[in-house]
């Protein structure tokens, strides 16, 4: 009887009767991204004239009153919002790209971001309701995703058809958002503006907690789906032959992507292109092995925190919303993807 050998580049963790096969390079990249994320959190928390000891004391409520206010009420909630929303967008982008077999198929590209934004803006300027804009954003994301897949001839749609339909749906929701803002009074338009560009300033605490809960449930679920998602990179006939239930997997992947995106937009608004760049960073650093959902989440959180820090400090005291910073960073990268390689290449 032959003893199973460990595949090259992998390690095995034995725990009693069970064993876990893991990819060494992906695990190393994940630990490196987690360490960089922790350092970035510390750096953003202590930036300016605030030292490490002063920030720690303020965080524990034992420091100067003004420093405690700065750390606990202003910086920490903002950092948490950026970390969670970036992680959700990074993971959702990885799922969506794998589902569509296209590196451009991110929630923003297929209209989910615009749908969530339109519903959030509508709750402020068009049909004010007792529901918070963050609650309506999730409904908008689900509506946009459903329209995209229905009009693209079902969840099996692939490639450019999926992208083009998504762009059309996003354009319709974007036009609706602009129309509502154009017809609204100046105060309502100003209140709705952060939901159109992406901002981490004074985010709703309830929405942040809901996003934290969604990530706690969504990331393990995405990891469980990763093996079948990897097989879905092949043709439908090959995936079915390997035992993948395509309809169920596509429905689960789409639902999870919509939930993560809607919760992220409910916190930060449409922070553009995080979902495009973060999965590519994870794949580039970790190699094209598996579906790097967790590494994409870490990369998305890191990118969002750094973009927010740049927006706060680059032209201080003028603040640039994090969504605008990400658009400036991501636009050249998007052009590079389109010009360098065929957009239909598998992620």
TrEMBL record:
Residues spanning the membrane: 27-48, 79-99, 111-129, 135-155, 162-182, 202-222, 254-278, 290-310, 322-339
Keyword Nucleus among record annotations: no
InterPro entries: ABC_BtuC-like, ABC_transptr_permease_BtuC
SUPFAM superfamilies: ABC transporter involved in vitamin B12 uptake, BtuC (SSF81345)
A Pfam cross-reference name: FecCD
Gene Ontology cellular component list: plasma membrane
Keyword vocabulary terms for this entry: Cell membrane, Membrane, Transmembrane, Transmembrane helix, Transport
Main location: membrane
Localisation: Cell membrane
Lipid bilayer topology: Multi-pass membrane protein
MF annotations from Gene Ontology: transmembrane transporter activity
GO biological process: siderophore-iron import into cell
Keyword Nucleus carried by entry: no
Family matches, as PANTHER family: FERRIC ENTEROBACTIN TRANSPORT SYSTEM PERMEASE PROTEIN, FERRIC ENTEROBACTIN TRANSPORT SYSTEM PERMEASE PROTEIN FEPG
Family under the similarity heading: Belongs to the binding-protein-dependent transport system permease family. FecCD subfamily.
The protein's name: Iron ABC transporter permease
């Amino acid at each position: 009887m032959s003893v199973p050998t460990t595949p090259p580049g992998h390690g095995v963790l034995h725990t009693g009767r069970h064993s876990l096969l893991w990819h060494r390079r992906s695990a190393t990249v994940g630990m490196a991204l987690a360490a960089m994320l922790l350092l970035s959190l510390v750096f953003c928390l202590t930036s300016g004239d605030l030292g490490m000891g002063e920030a720690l004391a303020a965080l524990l409520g034992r420091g100067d009153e003004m420093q405690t206010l700065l750390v606990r009420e202003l910086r920490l909630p903002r950092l948490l919002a950026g970390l969670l929303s970036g992680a959700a967008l990074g993971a959702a982008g990885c799922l969506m790209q794998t589902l569509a077999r296209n590196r451009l198929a991110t929630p923003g590209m297929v209209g989910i971001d615009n749908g969530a934004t339109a519903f959030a803006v509508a709750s402020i300027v068009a049909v004010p309701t007792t529901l918070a804009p963050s609650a309506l954003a999730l409904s908008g994301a689900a509506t946009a995703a459903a329209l995209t897949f229905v009009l693209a001839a079902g969840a099996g749609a692939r490639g450019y058809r999926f992208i083009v339909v998504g762009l059309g749906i996003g354009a319709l929701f974007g036009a609706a958002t602009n129309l509502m803002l154009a017809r609204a009074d100046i105060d309502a338009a100003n209140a709705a503006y952060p939901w159109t560009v992406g901002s981490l300033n004074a985010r709703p605490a309830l929405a942040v907690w809901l996003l934290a809960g969604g990530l706690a449930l969504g990331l393990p679920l995405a990891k469980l789906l990763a093996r079948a998602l990897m097989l879905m990179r092949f043709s439908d006939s090959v995936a079915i032959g390997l035992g993948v239930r395509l309809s169920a997997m596509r429905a689960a992947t789409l639902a999870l992507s919509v939930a993560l995106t809607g919760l992220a937009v409910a916190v930060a608004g449409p922070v553009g292109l995080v979902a495009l760049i973060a999965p590519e960073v994870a794949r580039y650093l970790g190699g094209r092995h598996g579906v790097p959902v967790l590494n994409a989440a870490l990369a998305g959180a890191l990118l969002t925190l750094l973009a927010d820090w740049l927006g706060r400090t680059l032209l201080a005291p003028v603040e640039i919303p994090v969504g605008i910073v990400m658009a400036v960073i991501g636009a050249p990268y998007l052009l590079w993807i389109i010009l360098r390689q065929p957009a239909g290449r598998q992620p």
